[in-house]
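Assemble and predict.
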Amino acid sequence: MIPIRDDNPQVATPIATYTLIGLNVLAWVLLQGFGNESALNASVCNYGLIPGDLFSDGNGQRVCRASGEWSGLVSSMFMHGSWMHIIGNMWFLWVFGDNIEDSMGTARFFIFYILSGLAAAAAQILSDPSSMIPMVGASGAIGGVMGAYIILYPKVKVHMLIFIMIVRIPAIAMLGYWVGVQVLGGISSIGATGGGTAFWAHVGGFAAGALLVLIFKDEEMLVNHPYYGWNQKADPLDIWQDPKNRQ
Amino acid sequence: MTDLLESTQVRAMYMSDTASVIEIISDHDDDDGEAAEAEFQDEGVEGHFVLVDGDDVLGISGYREIENCDATYYLSWTYLDEDYQGKGLGKKLLADVLDRLRKQDARKIFVKVSDYEEDGKNVYAAALSMYKSFGFEVEVVGQDFYDDGESQTILGLELTPQSEDLSVADEKPVIRFNGLFEIAETDGAYTFAWIVEKSAGFFGKRSFTPEDLELGISSVKEQGGRKIFLTFPSNLVLIHRPLQAVGFKYVGQLKDYYEEGLHELHFSHDLEGIG
């Protein structure tokens, strides 16, 4: 099951969405050598987020990073663990990111995305502060995009490819699907001790996005949006139907 | 008298016709005569036509294209010498002008008519019924537009058929008011000038706010204005709440004014007896 596209109209060119996808791809190409094993391992160590490293006092537990542990909070958001990992994440960003950007504007969306990623990292760190497994992936930030999407456009239809069929389902039903995909299929943490899904990062990113969007959304940009909210919104012109508002 | 219908001709107006044309207009309405003279001097006489019988100018009509619109026109000064009314000559002149517009693929034409009364008689009643006989339909009636008790009726005529259900995409530009002025030919009717700004800023507002409108309203009051008239394109979805919040009323719309499916909405605010 893959979301092919949504019925949500794209209003403005989603510059931040395209830029974020570009940065992720650039990191994959330049820093991770297209997933070449040695480049991948080095990049995960150097740019991934290692919770245990943040709070250690240099007692020799460090895996490979020489310095700048805290920069991993942001740089890990642009690293991935495999071709499937980056393709899956970028596909979701491509399909859903534009509509979130349309609800708040380019600059605000960029900050919203980074904050969602940071919240995801924070959730992962809190779940296991001493973990030495490096965490990489845009999944936490994209979880924020998904959280915002379901808050803003719960009823818009998403076209899902299921085997060879395309089925249109409401965005709210995507919630269960997306969580399922993340739990079962995502490979978001890789380390010497093995990889797995950074479950709490996804939950944290998702929850952060769902909350942040309430502050970041721009009501004016959503006026007359055909899929905003649970109820069909009245045409702004309708207020003039009231006889007391007419000359 | 039917021979006049045959002997008269419609030809393009020259600058040298100005004096006789102004005389015809002034016979009906001195103010219009002055306004027309100034306009001919500023903007020329292109798009204007005169009905002539030999060397005698009997009537004037014409059109001016509306800026920033797709083939939309206003009917310009349309007057017939008072001595020649009721003989079908006005119809001959107007039919000719409308034919010329249709041939150049004009889409829509509007005409503004006052309901000014002199000696208890509506001066423009005959003109209004003539426009209606050509298929013009009343689209907007601005009460007390020219003055208290003198309304402005705007009629529209489709010169090429316009689609009924075409809709134009919403737009949410950043609109800011940058001035106000008394509308020409009115006594105490004001409007606001507005511009579209490029960017809303990080947490900036796109639409003007009720406070912006209140500021303009109190300025007009200070200048002794009676009424405010505002017009906006029909696809600006953010303007309605603020306008309604400060008491603007919806007057009507000029259909397909800017382009097919994009209308001009008219709003008014009565300042008398308030505050």
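Chain B touches chain A at residues 142-143, 170, 172, 200, 202, 205-207, 234, 237-238, 240-241, 244, 249-252, 268 (CB under 8 Å).
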